[in-house]
Write a structure and sequence with these properties.
Helices cover 25% and strands 27% of the residues. It is built from 9 helices and 15 strands. The chain has helices at residues 4-18, 55-63, 89-96, 115-122, 133-138, 140-148, 178-188, 198-204, 257-265; strands at 32-37, 40-46, 71-76, 100-105, 126-129, 152-160, 164-166, 193-197, 221-225, 234-237, 250-254, 271-277, 285-286, 303-311, 314-321. The strands form 3 sheets. The chain has an 8-stranded mixed β-sheet with strand order 10-9-8-11-6-12-15-14. A 5-stranded mixed β-sheet has the order 2-1-3-4-5, with helices on both faces. Helix 8 (198-204) links the parallel strand 8 (193-197) and strand 9 (221-225). Helix 3 (89-96) packs parallel to helix 4. The two termini are 37 Å apart. Keywords: Hydrolase, Metal-binding, Multifunctional enzyme, NADP, Oxidoreductase, Riboflavin biosynthesis, Zinc. Zn(2+) binds at residues 54, 79, 89. One of its GO terms (molecular function) is metal ion binding. Pathway: Cofactor biosynthesis; riboflavin biosynthesis; 5-amino-6-(D-ribitylamino)uracil from GTP: step 2/4; Cofactor biosynthesis; riboflavin biosynthesis; 5-amino-6-(D-ribitylamino)uracil from GTP: step 3/4.
Length: 323
Amino acid sequence: MTTAASDTRWLDAAARLSTRARPASYPNPGVGCILLQGDRVVGRGWTAAGGRPHAEAAALAQAGKEARGATAYVTLEPCAHRSPRGPACSDLLVEAGVARVVAGVEDPDPRTAGDGLARLRHAGIEAGLLRSPAAEASLAGYLTRTRHDRPHVTMKIAMSLDGCIAMAGGESQWITGPQARAHVHARRAMADAILVGGGTWRADRPSLDVRLPGLGERSPQRVVLSRGVAPDGVTIINRPEQVAQLEALYLYVEAGANVAASFLAADLVDRLEIYRAPIIVGAGRGAVADIGLERLDDAHGRWALAERRQLGSDSFAAYSRLR
């Protein structure tokens, strides 16, 4: 017997599975799919590198004949449009004979937008949406790109207890410890692009790659916010709003004070990730420059805690923008 609670649990599991698709699935969203017979998983899949095969196709291929009569939990509504790269996932689910489909998010792509679920129902399959915050969060890049025509922006700031990102003279390596720095590299590996300011680029020439065993190939494209000339292998944008031009679903911003202020003032930050080291710097460089805030009341109600954990001696907290 299925319940809303068990459906939510399996959608949450599909959302966790979908993280394996990032960022290699670009330009397609990273989707997760789990096929269940009773309480037994018979197939699972996530969007492959380059966007094909889709998660449903991968899960159905793994399940084989056991897909017949199964329940499919998929983070995004199965697509309804055929393309030269592959069949529509709604058609594949019909052909496989699944009995039920539970999707976490309706696809905003006008080529599907409800038609995927409608096609399943027309074939006699019980199909519906169960709103899943986990599924929606797992699709943040795709939904932000579709709804707002820009990538989802995560801003990372590493600071001391008193809000400093560097000594007064500019020394900043290292504020946080090795566990926090490894976590940053894991977060880089989930992004399509990584951005720093022109000052940071000129002073440090950071590699902006992923330095974790086995994940080096996931290093994102490098972007610099500057009015200078783009070096080889680096994209230059002049204003934060130009992130819309990037070929990316997920942008990771490693911000100095001025870059942080410019993105926050433009209201382009969707997720704020703060690493805080148990040190006091004193007369150091602050984390964020002036963002034009005139009243303290205007600062409230903008951010909600999304995640918190300890990384060695450092603390990590992530906040989602409330819109």
